[in-house]
Amino acid sequence: MQTLLLDIKKDENAVKLAAKIIKDGGLVAFPTETVYGLGANALDEKSCKKIYEAKGRPSDNPIIVHVANEEMAEKIAFLNDDAKTLMKHFSPGPLTYILKAKDEINETVRGGLKTVGVRIPSNKVAHSLIKEANLPIAAPSANISGRPSPTRAKDVIFDLENKIDCILIDENTSVGLESTIVDVSSPNIKILRPGIITKEEIEKVLKKEVNAINIPTKELVAPGMKYRHYAPEARLIIVSGEEEKVVNRINELTKKEEKVGVICCDETYDKYKSSYKVSLGSRKDYKTIAKNLFLAFRCMNELEVNLIYCESFKRVGVGEAIMNRLIKAANDNIMTL
Ligand code: TXA
Ligand code: MG
């Protein structure tokens, strides 16, 4: 299949053409504020099935549905008071609500569950694509299953060119990590996947405590969270401890093997001897660290390193989301000094 590449900046009809492809049952990758998504008409089961094929995604993993506004959300799901309160504060934006699904949402999107994940993206292109198609758009991250979510159009092209109908090319995504997923389908509210909207922010708005599913865990999380995920090609090991100890140990370890990558931060970058190092940004700014994480994984792939050591981050606020992705990518491989 030849993939139509449409550049938002160069082609003023790009969104119109892409919306037509969605309406006709095709697959379109598009930017959102979190990561690029791979979209299909959420109301057409046959189109949604193609998403699983293109990504190589396990079929029990449900897909988030993207809508333009609350009114469109109500057409596909039951919105309770908690959902409405959160929507007022956080939508459009990087928060996905798990809600009881209406019959409009097919089995393929729900992955066999009675609920559906709904998100109102704030990215302008994503919003106009939904508006123009006038349809809810089912979209997982636009990567081959298991790889890091794409934050650049080039990552989407690398993973999915010739496997889908169209890719909307735009700037790098601004958040860089997938949305926070909050299950509001019952009064016992749970965060199923941490993101840049934190548990504390959600609790403040709802004026009550919510539960967070800690990873690693055997508890029920978002079905997709049980698979190895977000991973760079090379084995990833997290090194945790006091800064000086971590730097020294990683330097010792990188001496022993060839082509070992280091993922670190601005504060330590110059202290590492490896020539394959990437900084995620300053430790003073966890949002930037989050934004650059998947990008760093993809850069490590491009550098073709054999092994990667990565510094650890505090599991507070956005740090919870950073460590969630890191630990999954490292397959729980943490060296504590
Ligand atoms: O930021 C994002 O959420 C991006 C952009 C494209 O919107 N999308 C994204 O989709 O990350 P995906 O498919 O890569 O991750 C969605 C996660 C999966 O772990 C899936 O299991 C979970 O959401 N999920 C979807 N529907 C669910 C449901 N009804 N109940 C529980 N978890 C659900
Ligand atoms: Mg994904």
List the topology elements:
Layout: E1 4-7, H1 14-23, E2 28-30, E3 37-41, H2 45-55, E4 65-66, H3 70-76, E5 77-78, H4 81-90, E6 95-101, H5 107-110, E7 115-119, H6 124-133, E8 137-138, H7 153-160, E9 166-169, E10 180-183, E11 190-193, H8 199-206, E12 211-212, E13 235-240, H9 243-256, E14 260-264, E15 277-279, H10 286-303, E16 307-311, H11 319-329, E17 334-336
Parallel strand pairs: 1-9, 2-9, 4-7, 6-10, 11-12, 13-16, 13-17, 14-15, 14-16
Antiparallel strand pairs: 2-3, 3-8, 4-8, 5-6, 6-7, 10-11
Helix pairs in contact: 1-6, 10-11
Bound molecules: threonylcarbamoyladenylate and magnesium ion.
The site of threonylcarbamoyladenylate has 26 residues, from strand 6 and strand 7.
Could you describe the 3D structure shown?
With 337 residues, the protein is α/β, with parallel strands linked by helices. It has 11 helices and 17 strands. A hairpin with a 6-residue loop joins strand 10 and strand 11. The radius of gyration is 20 Å and the shape is globular. About 2% of the residues have low confidence. The structure holds threonylcarbamoyladenylate (TXA) and magnesium ion. Threonylcarbamoyladenylate (TXA) binds next to strand 6 and strand 7.
Keywords:
single chain, 337 residues, alpha/beta, twelve-stranded mixed β-sheet, five-stranded parallel β-sheet, 11 helices, 17 strands, binds threonylcarbamoyladenylate, binds magnesium ion
